[in-house]
Design brief:
Elements (H helix, E strand, L loop, with lengths): L17 E2 L5 E3 L11 H9 L1 H6 L27 E6 L3 H10 L6 E7 L3 H10 L6 E3 L2 H6 L5 E4 L6 H10 L3 E4 L7 H12 L6 E3 L7 H11 L6 E8 L15 H4 L10 H18 L5 E7 L12 E8 L4 E8 L7 E7 L2 E5 L4 E5 L1 H14 L13 E2 L8 H15 L7 H20 L2 E3 L11
Parallel strand pairs: 3-4, 3-6, 4-5, 6-7, 7-8, 9-12
Antiparallel strand pairs: 1-2, 9-13, 10-11, 10-17, 11-12, 13-14, 14-15, 15-16
Helix pairs in contact: 6-7, 7-13, 8-10, 10-13
The chain binds nicotinamide-adenine-dinucleotide.
Amino acid sequence: MFYPSGIYGWCLNWDEILTKPNGYVTCIFTNLRINPLSNTQESLIILNRRNFIKNGSLCTSTLLLSGALWSNFANTKNDKVYRIGIIGFGDRGSGLFNVLKDFPGKFVVNAICDPLDFRLDNAKKMADTNKVKLYRDHRKLLENKNVDAVIISTPLNTHYEIAKNSLEAGKHVYLEKAMTFTVDQAMSLTRIAEKHPNQTLQIGHQYRYSPLYYKVKKMIQDGYLGKVVQIDARWDRNWNWRRPVPDPSLERKINWRMYKEYSGGLPAELLSHQMDYIHWAFDALPTTVYGTGGIDFYKDSRETYDNVQLNIRYEQEDMIGNFGATCANKNDGYSFRIKGSKGMVSLLTDDGIFYPETETRKELEEVDGVSGATKIAWTENKNGISLVDSKLKDGSFYAFEDFYKAISENSLPDSNVYTGGNTAICVALANDSIYNGGMRKWKPEYNLSPQY
Ligand SMILES: NC(=O)c1ccc[n+]([C@@H]2O[C@H](COP(=O)([O-])OP(=O)(O)OC[C@H]3O[C@@H](n4cnc5c(N)ncnc54)[C@H](O)[C@@H]3O)[C@@H](O)[C@H]2O)c1
């Protein structure tokens, strides 16, 4: 992988390298990986930086993100309203029902399925039952020819079977993460999806859909961070992660996350999002996965661990990922730090700051000092540069934009069966290591990719 060796300037359009006949460079960065600039050209860029600052061509605001700039609808020409069935109407299913209200004229929910009475009661309160059919068995919902697509938001152990049934019933599918529970299921679902090339299967890793995360992916690819060597990802809380149970017979159905039979615990429920992002942003897959953990705080007969730490090696990228989660301290909460030789990006789900290293900072201050009108958005304490200047929507909104586009155009969504499958495999290896000890090696057959 090629990493450019200097900060040359900041520009609005990342997708152009334009060298004027007189040698002035007005816009740089993209294509550097596939068309590396020679040292001579790099010097030229640096020498001419003041010129293009003066010419107004250098725009430091490229580091700032405006959420409005990004929309998957921009090029989607389709008036069709897709009719959605939601399978699993718990926290996530009912939450996504609300998100879909932001898509009038694109999606309409006309079916909901859940085997639990109190969940269906909730569906009756939230939905107009003259327009939305209710089911207890997902196979019955799948027989409904008026349903074009389904959202599957059920416990992890059910994902594979329901997704398989849904594809075989001819539905488009938005399947919540983690895609599958086991390695074999991930590989099998991939092949099943390929037998249904005209149907979309999108996986619910929605955080990466935020324009902020796209931007950071681009920063990584274009070398803004230099050589990234470590990633520190956490998702901590100070809470037992349990739900109240009205009747003890419902304990395992409501608190399925506590039991190994149904749940991949903290790695599947939380850390899978950050793992997935690293695979995508770096176009990388793990080489080895090591995990440890325990029921270290909540000795309450749960089976999944309340304290886990994963160490993942990405050998080809010379990179280490540390992924941790605990239920006994919430100070860090969600934290995601990507550390490179030129700077570190620190991400929340909807905010991000770039912390330049000393040399990078000097370059940036010089640019900032000269450019005037296009000020870099330094944080109040001047330690870092804000990457977001306007409020972003929840990642699920952007994910559904891609779902609509993928169905309309029969395109592969960004979070698809291959990327979701790779992440599900990574989670399964992590849990195997956590529960059974030892390091797990990534096998070549885990590299899921289209087999045309
Ligand atoms: N992408 C995200 O950020 C995000 C956030 C939360 C949850 N999730 C995922 O969504 C899924 C559900 O999580 P949740 O918090 O909503 O759980 P939940 O327990 O609140 O809801 C799951 C619902 O599925 C129902 N269900 C179980 N088996 C079913 C079946 N065969 N058919 C139909 N319904 C069935 C249950 O009765 C329950 O009501 C999990 O995979 C979870 O990881 C994703």
